[in-house]
Amino acid sequence: SAIEEDIKAYEIKDAASLEKFRIEFLGSKNRIKDLFALLKTVPNEEKRAVGQLINGVKVLAETKFNEQKEVLENTSEEGEKLDFSRPGDPLEVGSRHPIALVRSEIIEIFNRIGFSVSEGPEIEDDWHNFSALNFPPEHPARDMQDTFFIEKGENEMALRTHTSSVQVRVMENGEAPIRTISPGRVYRNEAISARAHCFFHQVEGLYIDKDVSFADLKQTLLYFAKEMFGEKAQIRLRPSYFPFTEPSAEVDVSCTICSGKGCNVCKYTGWLEILGCGMVDPNVLEASNIDPKEYSGYAFGMGIERIAQLKYRVNDLRLYSENDVRFLKQFTSAL
Ligand code: PHE
């Protein structure tokens, strides 16, 4: 029939022509219905055959409609055929920065032995960065050479040169006993090279309680070194001086890269300095309203870059802040 020809020839190229097709052949006033209406005029003995014919036309229209609908649904607007079996564009997975990785690991290690995390401002006043930490007025560390000073209104402020400033804030605001670590960025006015930078990262540790001893400090640091670098790690304490601790020490950890034979990370010595520490000076406790007759404590400050250097064999401090993706990408698997 003519309708059959029309259905076959009908060009469905978009949603609009599909809808027109539907209205014409399948809608409530469709052309095939007209044929069924004509069935009344057909002699009885032919009704069955003619009915089947018309029904065939109806099925043809329905089939074409469903087929074309599916074709349209699988075709993008530009008309190209979509291929759902094609592999997707790869999603680039980012990586965490080695400094962030090491910082979280340090926090976890100290969390396990009851240390909380505290933070302080990077722009600091003289009191918290120096005076309360027992720096005499003429101490060379206050010198312009090390400290970035900042004019801020009436007050002269500085970029903190160490996280020891947070010790003071924690002691001022809290009450003994105190067991906390303070991770953060610190600044020093130094020429940038492979081994020095104008900013780097530290984690301060502070433990104040009754009868805290130097042995507690040593044991805590040994625990830390073993957790961080493995059971074989050893530490070595060298006498040192800090205005805010007495006695004071610098701590080296055994080089896990060359295991004693010497490499350029440990400068062929088998040891790498990672932190300064000591028993909190009574003057410092007093400055923060903690009674040194009742309480004692230890403090330490470790360099995150140093620990990352040993953990990941990074030999140039500048790599940490250059954002070179070839460097950063190497830590993807460290997630
Ligand atoms: N603040 C010292 C530094 O930056 C490290 C330190 C912290 C030493 C705590 C002793 C106690 O070098």
From TrEMBL:
GO cellular component: cytoplasm
Reactions that this protein is recorded to catalyse: tRNA(Phe) + L-phenylalanine + ATP = L-phenylalanyl-tRNA(Phe) + AMP + diphosphate + H(+)
PROSITE patterns named in the record: AA_TRNA_LIGASE_II
Principal EC category: ligase
Cofactor binding annotation: Binds 2 magnesium ions per tetramer.
Swiss-Prot/TrEMBL GO biological process terms: phenylalanyl-tRNA aminoacylation
Subcellular localization(s) per the UniProt record: Cytoplasm
Transmembrane parts of this sequence: none
Keywords of the record: Aminoacyl-tRNA synthetase, ATP-binding, Cytoplasm, Ligase, Magnesium, Metal-binding, Nucleotide-binding, Protein biosynthesis
Binding site for Mg(2+): E246
Tagged with keyword Cell cycle: no
Cofactor: Mg(2+)
Domain of life: Bacteria
Single annotated GO MF: magnesium ion binding
EC number in record: 6.1.1.20
Claim: Phosphoprotein is one of the keywords in the record: no
Domain Aminoacyl-transfer RNA synthetases class-II family profile residue range list: 102-310
Stated family: Belongs to the class-II aminoacyl-tRNA synthetase family. Phe-tRNA synthetase alpha subunit type 1 subfamily.
SUBUNIT field: Tetramer of two alpha and two beta subunits.
NCBIfam families registered for this protein in UniProt: pheS
HAMAP family: Phe_tRNA_synth_alpha1
Name by which UniProt lists this protein: Phenylalanine--tRNA ligase alpha subunit
